[in-house]
Amino acid sequence: MVATNKDPVLAVFSLSGGNDFMNTVIPYTNPLYRDYRPTLAVAEDQVVPINDELAFHPAMASLKKYWDEGKLAIILGVGYPHPSLSHFRSMDIWATCEPDELGLIGWLGSVLQEIDPKAENVLTGVNFGRGLPRSMAKDGVPVASVGDLSSYGLLTDIEETGQRDQALDLFGRMYSPVLGRGIVNDYIRRTGLEAMAGADILGTAPGKYSSTVEYGNSAVGGYLKDMVQVHNAGFGTRVLFTTAPYNIFDTHANQAVGHSNLLMDISTNIDCFMADLREQHISDNVMLFFYSEFGRRAMDNGSGTDHGTGGVAFALGEHVKGGIYGEYPSLELGKLEDGGNLQHNVDFRSAYSTILERWMGMDAKPIVGGTYDQLDFL
Amino acid sequence: MADREIALMAHLLRRAGFGASRDEVEARVAQGYDNVVEELLNVGDGPGIDEDLMYRAYPAYFDKVAIETGQTEWVYRMINNRYQLQEKMSLFWHTIFCSGDNKVDNARTTAIQIDKFREQGMGNFQDLILMLSKDPAMLYYLDNIESHKTAVNENYGRELLELFSMGVGKDGELNYTEDDVKACARAFTGWNLAPTIPVFPYGRTPFEFRYDPADHDHEDKTFLGETGPWNGEDIIDIICKQPATARFIARKMYDFFVADEPPVPSWRQSQPRDLAAINTLEKAYFDSGYEIKAMLKALFTSDFFKSDSVHYAKVKSPAEVVIGTLRMVGHHTAPQPGLFFVAMEPKYMGMDLLNPPTVEGWHTGAEWINSGTLIDRINFAAGLLGDTGLPGVKSIIGRLMDRSDSIPPEEFVDGCLDLTGPLTIAEETRSELVAHVQAGGELRHATDSERENFSQRTGEMLQFIATTSEFQFA
Fold first, then answer.
1. Contact B436/A170, CB-based, under 8 Å?
2. What is the rounded distance in angstroms from the CA atom of residue B28 to the CA atom of residue B6?
3. Domains in chain A and their CATH numbers?
4. How much is the ipTM here?
5. Is A181 within 8 Å of B467 when comparing Cβ atoms?
């Protein structure tokens, strides 16, 4: 297990919609790449090479320095057997580690329960975005979902601060225990007080933070900045999760421009995330894992790419051993899966197991549902 | 108009629909309770909304390529369908006959299933379950397309019995055996989809049902004690005449419309909360020859439904929180921007419409509430009820002003509770609200600035009411 100064923190970022592996880590010297991508191949003089065969998409140039520092691991050809080409099903599989049946327990939900079995800290796990992501779902595990940290909490429509404080004060009194209203009502009142406590604590995070880093003006930029603020505030949060909204990586059409903008958005903001952690001197115990539920078709469709299988995931952090893990799937026609998809050669549960065992210091087997080869990026 | 009549009508409209503004509640009281029940049960010809207007404003609803489109259209219909029970019944069947788009991955096919619930949801149960057994989203979701004469897949056959019609057991007994499951699954072999059209490049095309006699097991089967070369229709015929089926639908209906029942897996051992009520519904089922409408009529006109003890006895589902609040304040009653964001709210509160978490559906009652969803529920309702520009809120302000030139704090709080329900809250909570109003000074509305102050404080009071634990109940 990796030794960190403080308890290890896992940040997970889902590039939902199916990120195009082949135009993220580009096999720029492989002639088949250009054959398959008459519309979408990135010119050889524009890519950002990381070795003699592979290059980053030019929009990812800001992450190249972490590669050069040896802090960025790239997991090539990641997936799982009998892949589903449905976004939602595939996301659920990544979230629950249950490829054959509909699972309800998120892998990070299990991680949170392991860390805080009695749910004593309502902020052990925090999601950035709306709703509860399946990855964090588990009965009895509280997860705060923060759409926007600067306005998170109860009664956020009341803009005037004094008035809102007064309203929250009243809310606290209204929710104090009363007799004879029934067990469900009691439960709701208890939950209301818990929610208010969590919101109160989270609300102090922006006051503890100041930074020179300027994040991009996008949802992803906001979420990653909020992650750093929550980590910085020292609430004991051990799992941070966010998702690129609205399946935005689903680039069936006009991919040349669209995908480039998406990679630019996530790369510059991940760069900001890392730079910010370093500025605050809190980067030592954070690892960011980012992935997508599948890659896309090897051949472009004249405008974009359709759903595929094997994809790419990344791990970034001070203790990450940078490098290439797994192999780039063969582009040869005979070695593509049905309909022209890249074959996976690393199971995503291998990546999870590595993170759980070597970073979080936990037994991975019950969480991912089996024993998988570990990778050496930690 | 008597307070009791108002309370009863508001209760009926919250349960048989998604609630109503106070103006509508009063108009309905004038109509008479039984007449309103008849109107709810008897859906007229044609749609209950102006579909031309809707499709002109939202052309994407016509060909739903994304699940979000199907969700948004349904939310629009739930707000605006004048046949409110039609939408409530669509939701009822959707919470039982679950097919999730995360697996079907064909939003149009999934949404068409809801359209069928809308059309047939108050019809005959036998017709409904036959429709369901041929529904492409269901055939795909529960793997009946993988069930063949030579290799039976039991998924649909099992869930049809366990979750859609009979339930595992009642009165301590098992309702069927594993052999019955196998026979049931064999009878539905060959119930499949026509070859599907590839998704790209033209987008998704709805799946279609096709029966393949060559892939059907024509041999004899013994199902619930009856032996013959049963096909799916015969199985459904046998299912529908079982007392277990009447019990199952009756309990589901009671749970959805009257008061929260314990979760389904415990039904074999646990007695219904109100056995006499269940027996009334079971009788309506058999007397009418499996007519859902007859069961609903028995339910809505019964004493057990009208009883004060079941008013606000159910935790609102996220759909009820969202649609109910929108209807109370009169928002999105015609196409306007922002509907998409409103329609995503049930998902944030844990009810991703068209995409239930499993075939078992959503866990309801207190399980809707956790610290994350409670914040969303409160903020959503408080945000709308505090918006003094919305028609329903304006109407409440007007009604309060009409009462007197200066309204005392207690009467003001009680008035607000009455007009948002009528809702009864814990005395301790009420005292806090009264004290808050007292501290804010006298409530008058003679001058412009007094009126401004009055409106603003009414909006604030409605927000507080939206935060109460009692507001979480329907």
1. yes
2. 9
3. 9-154+213-368 (3.40.720)
4. 0.89
5. no
